[in-house]
Amino acid sequence: MPVIAGVLIISFVLMVVLPGDPVLSMVGERYDESTVEIMRKKLNLDKPLMVRMGMFFGDIIKGDLGNSFISGRPVVKEILEKLPNTLVLAVGAMVVAVLVGVFLGMATSLFPGSWFDKTIMVLALAGVSAPVFWTGLVFMLFFGVYLGWLPPTGYGGIEHVLLPAFTLGLRSAAQITRLTRSAMLDTLGQDYIRTAQSKELPWWKILIKHALPNSMIPVLTVIGTDFGSYLSGAVLTESIFGWPGVGRLALGAIMSRDFPVVQGTVLFMAMMFICVNLIVDILYGVIDPRLRAERHN
Question: For 76-296, which CATH superfamily applies?
């Protein structure tokens, strides 16, 4: 709760001090001062900052996030309408990241120092370093415009999910590749792995049953952090590909100074991060028996 309250206070103050006027965004270019004053009073924008903040937190306690300044619709409804789209993109991106990252990390750990290992590590470094907006534009131009394989923008079937999902998941895949390789190299040198090898167990069984689960703790941290950010709405990716998710909703609200929607999306993002981190903490104990034993003792 203190974290959520702190995030909300900071975002509230930032929206107030940033240039721009939500009332002017609503009334347009043709307006008179009396109309502006009426709208300010109607939206409680004429009240002092501390009073408005108190009213805002009071409404949150009652479960009311208010209505959008622009559309007039409830903020909760605005977010819930965009949430399924964000879930589709987040799950797709994480599936790409985990499958590609874990596979390449395991493969490179089996051939350390080889040309294959060095090539994948260079590509992983490039994937971590490349900005999301640059990767998205390259994918859009190459696969969507030049080759014409996939639609460059829009929302619809699975063909519309692929480009934004790969764009969003590429950085995570690169991080997971590097972490999995490092953790697997450390795990493969442990005594219990040599014991399993001495028993002439199949190599795939040693990797999947013994080495991989004990190498997943650092990887799980990245998965949890990135998935939390995906659920919160990938602002750049959704904006580049015209994906109607929570991130694009938040960006539009910031641009139009739609305070209730901004505060609602910030609250949603903070709650998503906290929930995902809680799930990750629980999974630590499920994956690593040593942590279960420590907690039991």
Answer: MetI-like (1.10.3720.10)
Q: Give the residue among 280, 276, 175 at the shortest CA–CA distance from 232.
A: 276
pTM of the model: 0.78
Instruction: Provide CB contacts within 8 A for 169, sequence distance 6+.
Output: 92, 93, 94, 95, 96, 97, 100
Tell me what the mean pLDDT of segment 252-273 comes to. 83
Q: Start-end ranges of CATH 1.10.3720.10 in the chain?
A: 76-296
pLDDT digit string (tens) for 146-166?
888 888 877 777 888 888 889
Which pLDDT score, from 0 to 100, does residue 252 have?
A: 85
